[in-house]
Design goal:
Elements: H1 14-29, H2 34-42, H3 47-59, H4 66-79, H5 81-97, H6 105-110, H7 112-128, H8 132-146, E1 149-150, E2 155-156, E3 161-162, E4 169-170, E5 175-176, E6 181-182, E7 187-189, E8 201-202, E9 207-208, E10 213-215, E11 219-220, E12 225-226, E13 231-232, E14 241-243, E15 248-251, H9 258-261
Bound molecules: coenzyme A.
The site of coenzyme A (COA) has 13 residues, from strand 7.
């Protein structure tokens, strides 16, 4: 059930208004989805309420049911409005950058990269509130359910797009700035030879293509592009394209922020 009874179309929240309008249309045209769409979207008064409901149903288990997650995620949304802002920026990022996506409602309901990222946002909030056991529990459920493992202490900005998402890993001291795009099987991990601050720092607007491994406390400069399957072991200068194992500079992206264009060609 929705946490708030009154359903407000949300004229001051254009993303939520559009989601509701689109979902009403989908529901009218596909009777088999009507109940699902009612429960996940149409019964809710806000995007936060819908996301909390949907995410908690995915994360819940027999031992820690959805209702417990729901309570916790609602609490995070209420006490940290910046999470809701990041959720909206992430939805915009997907819609603008994913050629297969022309709406906000599809990622909200179906894209596991989006779900994993929002669950990380909840886990990160728990981590900051010194509720680390629950944060690690959330991380573990996300890993089990979505195949995405983001440490709750990692620092991620907003407007982040994780496409397909299977096998994405980000370690404890990883930093990912705003407006970054990455694809499935990307690892932002340690080399195993360093301790402490040992994970990559990914600056704004970077595009990391499928299967790339960025290892160690290396900096990937603003607007850089990392080719599929690369192993990055050293700093990548801003606005350069790297490829290979170990990765080397092979060119320079045409776009200032390749993450926004999602042009994975190795343009020079
Ligand atoms: C294998 C590894 C531990 C490096 O071991 P190492 O023997 O200390 O190697 P070095 O860092 O000194 O590098 C030696 C050479 O191998 C190259 N190299 C290192 N890792 C490499 C890799 N994964 N693939 C190909 N070449 C690699 C280096 O570029 C270097 O080449 P150079 O001598 O021409 O400059 C490390 O690079 C690695 O792969 N770690 C992976 C850890 C991991 O899986 N992390 C994910 C955690 S989620």
């Amino acid at each position: 059930m929705a946490s708030q009874d009154a359903v407000d179309p949300g004229s001051e929240d254009p993303i939520w208004s559009e989601i509701r309008k689109d979902v009403q249309g989908v529901s009218a045209g596909e009777s088999l989805l009507e109940r699902f769409l009612q429960a996940t979207v149409l019964e809710h008064a806000s995007l936060e309420s819908a996301l909390s409901f949907h995410l908690s149903n995915k994360l819940g288990s027999e031992m820690l049911p959805a209702e417990a997650f729901r309570q916790g995620i609602d609490e995070a949304f209420n006490s940290a409005p910046e999470i809701g802002e990041a959720v909206r920026a992430d939805l915009c990022a997907i819609r603008e950058r994913d050629p297969a996506c022309t709406s906000y409602w599809m990622p909200l309901l179906y894209f596991k990269g989006f779900h994993a990222l929002q669950a990380y946002r909840y886990a990160h909030w728990l981590w900051g509130a010194d509720r680390r056991a629950l944060a690690v529990h959330v991380q573990n459920r996300v890993s089990e359910i979505f195949g995405v493992d983001i440490h709750p202490a990692a620092t991620l900005g907003s407007g982040i797009f994780i496409d397909h998402a299977t096998s994405v890993v980000m370690g404890e001291t990883t930093v990912v700035e705003d407006d970054v795009s990455l694809l499935h099987e990307v690892t932002l991990g340690g080399t195993g030879k360093e301790t402490g601050d040992r994970h990559p720092k990914i600056r704004r607007g970077v595009l990391i293509c499928a299967g790339a491994k960025v290892l160690g406390n290396v900096e990937v400069g603003e607007g850089a592009k990392i080719a599929a399957g690369s192993v990055v072991l050293s700093d990548v200068p801003p606005h350069s394209t790297v490829a290979g194992i170990p990765a080397e500079i092979v060119g320079h992206p045409e776009a200032d922020q390749p993450a926004l264009e999602m042009n994975s060609g190795l343009g020079v």
